[in-house]
Amino acid sequence: MRQLYFKNLRLEMGMGGRFLVRLVIYVFYGMLTATMIVILFAEMRWLQSLGFFLILFLGDRLLHLNRGDKKLAYLPAAGRVNLNAYLTPITFSILERSFDQAFFIRGDFFLWLARQLLDQSRVRKLLRKSGVKVKWHEADKELQRLLADSRREKYKKAELLTLTEQLVAAAATEALIINGNYVNPEHLLLALFKREPKAMKGISFLGSVKIKL
Amino acid sequence: MRLDLVVVYLLSRFFYRLAAFFVHWYWHTFLIFSGWVNGLKSRFLRGLAGIILFFVYLAWALAPVYLVWRAFT
Fold first, then answer.
1. Share above pLDDT 70 across residues of chain A, in percent, rounded to a whole number
2. What is the model's pTM?
3. Domain locations in chain A?
């Protein structure tokens, strides 16, 4: 029996910690790229070798840039499985932003998530394909209004972690049903419709839509 | 700010990425090559392609090892 769960250290950090992580990662890759270029033209042969190795390493990172760490096809059939490795970076970034907004600005977590999802061009394309004919700035205005109405909603961190975990598990199930390689933002949207129909019904342009993937 | 979490996260990601590079380089290339060989219908061609790809894979596998060896010795 497979038990899906979701745990990522980044969500357990504070906003400052997450900012520091992002900063260190960007600076690290920036410096690594600059180092690679400089040492490729070094006169010492051993340094050039290191430069070529860095080309291979950074090339591999570029090839796998918008992919998850593991494919859902390799999901173990039994045991406890952390879904963190199966999320694409953009899916995690959407969850992270919605998590921060619900925690710091307050308001319904699912509405924040819906707003983040609607910012994605691939999600808009999917909704258009499913028959949603709304101007996106009007959709955003409606979401802003609903969010303003839900400002009283206040979550504890543990509550948000549980909600996120449940939603990611539902999104992974959706992705598995349609043989997706990774958990993408579209799967989050599908999970949102199935798990939180109440929250979705409140959004007029999404209330009665049936998603066609 | 939980600096311990930040340090643990960054270190684990760094080593994970490094390990992922070697997994992609060795295991994924092996899977691709074996997929090519198994896709051939004739037994003779499979044998021939297997031998050629074995040597190509050997050169491919030694490339990062050679670069690291040259850089640090």
1. 92
2. 0.83
3. 9-63, 74-201
